[in-house]
């Protein structure tokens, strides 16, 4: 048996509001947790945790709940609010633009960009980077970043272009197993209908914009905003001169980086370093 739901305070947090609304909709439709679990294909334990505010509603549960209850986009909207609670405030404006962008271009010097990270990779980053945080807080950060990746699964997703520094492939975040799985997920996105990935190799030397992370977000109407981030600091720019300089710098990096085909070859070669050992045949 599940324990009774704890008293939630919807005014305190979006997570509590989500839990209250989930329980309310479930009771209105007369569904038990067991029956709802069957409908949305999420465990009863997870659903109970979301209802009580102990767990975050991991994607794509919000869409499934809206379908199950006939609530339009209610839970998807609530998930947006929950996600923002677990994202650094400096990133808020970038998140808003990311949701509306028709083209997203990004450079990361030393880590795989958030939209491309596996759950295990991002968990390792958050855990090592925030040793003072509880496991629940880490889970919140992971869920929020996983939620951002929904933009990749839209029916009409933006056009994506990523440039990764070679260090992002070489730094063994989370260990060999995590890195191998991370690089595997990159390969099909190197060149697809709406995604391009290039690697800026070490031998390219110093490049424009190579310090930290930069994101170019182009909205309908062709206006572009820049988000630039360093350690613990992020800022958006829409001044035309600054944007023009960053776009020129990004175009220069594209020219200096490896082609998608050569980038895929480097990713595959790097994967061999992380390849799980095979037992010899007997």
In brief, what are we looking at here?
This protein has 282 residues and is of the alpha/beta class. 47% of the residues lie in helices and 13% in strands. Strands 3-2-1-4-5-6 form a 6-stranded mixed β-sheet, sandwiched between helices.
Structural account:
The protein is 47% helix and 13% strand. The chain contains 12 helices and 6 strands. Helix 1 runs antiparallel to helix 5. The protein has 2 domains: 71 residues, lambda repressor-like DNA-binding domains (434 Repressor (Amino-terminal Domain), Orthogonal Bundle), CATH 1.10.260.40; 156 residues, Endonuclease, Chain A. The chain has a 6-stranded mixed β-sheet with strand order 3-2-1-4-5-6, sandwiched between helices. The chain is α/β, with parallel strands linked by helices.
